[in-house]
Amino acid sequence: MTTQLTATEIQNISQLLQDYDPAQKTLALINETNGDLEKSFEELWTEQHGKQDFSQTKLWQSTVTVFRQELCGKEGFQNQVKEYNKNPTSAPLLTGLIVSVVHSVGFPIDPAIATVVVLYILKVGINIFCDYINPEATKK
Fold it and tell me: Whole-angstrom Cα distance, residue 139 to residue 56?
């Protein structure tokens, strides 16, 4: 399933992140792909790491899985998402989420890629995003 931002969501996010330089390339790609977050991720990844010999879809799924493992156990990150959701017009809260992802994962991540991941998390919701890490927990 492709996760896609609407034109209104793209416009709102672009306005919020207009002063955050690391997100500008991501926002341009999201615009070019009509809001397709996975495709935007793939293009950023290919630009930074070259064409890979494996499925880009598998790369996206693997990346999201790693981010779930790194982020979902961190109460601070989940609280930041909840705070942003209470005030989705706050540029500092959105920028803070991106910076948090860059610094929270246990490996170097480009802020442009972190931006795509944060937008994906916000689109699907933190609870749904994190439930995938431990589907057994949802059966209790």
Answer: 31
Please name the residue ranges forming H helices in the chain: 7-16, 24-32, 37-49, 56-71, 75-86, 91-104, 111-124, 126-131
Per-residue pLDDT at 48? 84
Measured over all CA atoms, what is the biggest interatomic distance in the chain, rounded to whole angstroms? 44
Which segments of the chain have a pLDDT < 50? 135-140
3-state helix, strand, coil in the chain (%, to 5): 75, 0, 25
Q: Quote the pLDDT of residue 46.
A: 86
CA atoms of 29 and 44, how far apart (whole Å): 8
DSSP symbol at 18 = T
CB atoms within 10 A of CB 45: 20
- The span from the CA of 51 to the CA of 56, in Å, is 9
**8 Å CB contact between 90 and 13:** no
